[in-house]
């Protein structure tokens, strides 16, 4: 079904003082309105977003979302109801079957909440997300409690609210509801049935200064957190075996001793990835005495570590590998190594670094008795530390 989202951003926001209306203030370094639009666009069922603004705020609007390719903003009215009607009238030419109406100052709306509203809207003419009231309610006058109010059957209503487009446009055209605080009030006054879906506590409305502080705390939990893992490995030279480094066979060079193919580069990188999820080391997962891994390609080890990171909710951002090798020269093979690692980890080549150096003739590497490798991996986790149990 055709669904458009209408964002109501025409208010002045006087209860949250600042140098501009609250929908244009920064939240987590990004304008509130921009966050709202991006969240709605993240819901794949929404075909487009249109914003209703106060024409006096056009410069703020362009600064906030002017580069997002939105249709021209709609000029709002003196009240929320008038602004919504202006937006609906502007959408009429596109004739959507359904419309979501959303407050611009609810920038943390989860795409999953939009999905719930849209799913229920497939068989309803109006849908609103709601939250239960858990606190006791009292009526207060002159700073004193004057009576009790029952909370049974009472809820808190959020946006986005979804409607059959023709029905809500007709309701706004017919119904005079100057005190309506949202569009379900207009819908109910017009005789529409409004169904509900569960809302989200984090979908807060930025009304007071303390709401911005709360929203910043919510964003802090959502921002990616990063872990860095380190890996090291060394293998002795074995001239009877082929040399495999970073998944690439190096011709005309003595190989390395080991139970598997002895790819010292991929072993170090495997340990680095395992470190980001605190999952022990490569030997714990692939014991060297296990015949299953005799002459095994080390790409299998790296893929296993990659999958453990993904299972913990991580996304590999970058890997950096240094090979310590007196001979052969590895520079001609660096691009192939980077490409192979990128393929194994699902990364762009630009996110894979492979470096090679010598030990200036010192130590076992300098005597050409072995090759060593160091690796560092950076992995991002959404909002909180990964579950590595």
How many domain regions?
2
Highest CATH level, the class of the largest domain: Alpha Beta
CATH superfamily of the largest domain: Spore Coat Polysaccharide Biosynthesis Protein SpsA, Chain A
Give the helix level as a range of percent.
25-40%
Structural class, from helix and strand content? alpha/beta
Strand segment count: 17
- Please mark out the parts with pLDDT under 50 across 5 or more consecutive residues, or reply none: 384-389
CA gyration radius, whole angstroms: 30 Å
Shape: elongated
Give me the number of helical elements.
Answer: 12
Roughly what fraction of the amino acids lie in strands? 25-35%
The CATH architecture designation of the largest domain is: Alpha-Beta Complex
Note the main sheet: 8 strands, mixed
End-to-end CA span = 43 Å
CATH topology of the largest domain: Spore Coat Polysaccharide Biosynthesis Protein SpsA, Chain A
The helix/strand order is EEEHEHEHEHEEEEEHHEHEEHHHEHEHE
The whole-number mean of residue pLDDT values reads 93
What does this entry look like structurally?
The chain is of the alpha/beta class and 389 residues long. The chain has 2 domains: 3-222, Alpha-Beta Complex (Spore Coat Polysaccharide Biosynthesis Protein SpsA, Chain A); 224-382, 2-Layer Sandwich (60s Ribosomal Protein L30, Chain: A). It contains 12 helices and 17 strands. α5 crosses α6 (183-189) and α8 (264-276) packs parallel to α10 (299-311). The longest helix is centred in the middle third of the chain and has 14 residues, at 209-222. The relative contact order is 0.11. Mean pLDDT is 93; it is low at 384-389.
């Amino acid at each position: 079904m055709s669904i458009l989202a209408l964002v109501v951003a025409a208010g002045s926001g006087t209860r949250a003082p600042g140098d501009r209306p609250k929908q244009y203030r920064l939240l987590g370094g990004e304008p509130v309105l921009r966050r709202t639009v991006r969240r709605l666009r993240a819901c794949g069922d929404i075909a487009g977003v249109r914003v209703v603004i106060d024409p006096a705020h056009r410069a703020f609007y362009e600064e906030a979302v002017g580069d997002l390719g939105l249709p021209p903003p709609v000029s709002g009215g003196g009240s929320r109801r008038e602004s919504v009607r202006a937006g609906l009238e502007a959408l009429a030419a596109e004739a959507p079957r359904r419309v979501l109406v959303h407050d611009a100052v609810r920038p943390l709306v989860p795409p999953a909440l939009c999905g719930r509203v849209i799913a229920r809207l497939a068989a309803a003419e109006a849908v609103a997300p709601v939250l239960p009231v858990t606190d006791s309610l009292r009526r207060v006058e002159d700073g004193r409690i004057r009576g009790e109010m029952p909370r049974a059957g009472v809820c808190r209503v959020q946006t986005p609210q979804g409607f059959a487009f023709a029905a809500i446009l007709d309701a706004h055209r017919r119904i005079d509801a100057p005190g309506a605080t949202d569009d379900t009030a207009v819908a109910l006054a017009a005789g529409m049935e409004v169904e509900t879906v569960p809302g989200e506590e984090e979908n807060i409305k930025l009304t007071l200064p303390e709401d911005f502080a709360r929203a910043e705390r919510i964003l802090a939990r959502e921002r990616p957190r990063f872990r860095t893992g380190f890996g090291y490995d060394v293998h002795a030279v074995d001239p009877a075996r082929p040399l495999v480094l970073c998944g690439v066979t190096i011709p005309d060079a003595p190989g390395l001793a080991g139970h598997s193919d002895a790819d010292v580069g991929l072993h170090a990188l495997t340990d680095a990835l395992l470190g980001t999820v605190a999952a022990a080391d490569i030997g714990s997962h692939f014991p060297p005495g296990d015949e299953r891994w005799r002459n095994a390609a080390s790409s299998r080890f790296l893929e296993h570590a990659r999958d453990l990171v993904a299972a913990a909710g991580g996304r590999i951002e970058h890997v950096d590998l240094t090979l310590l090798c007196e001979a052969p020269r590895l520079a001609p093979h660096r691009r192939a190594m980077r490409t192979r690692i990128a393929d194994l980890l699902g990364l762009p080549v630009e996110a894979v670094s492979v470096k090679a150096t010598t030990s200036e003739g010192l130590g076992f590497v300098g005597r050409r008795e072995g090759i060593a490798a160091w690796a560092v991996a950076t992995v991002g986790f959404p909002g909180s530390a990964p579950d590595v149990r």
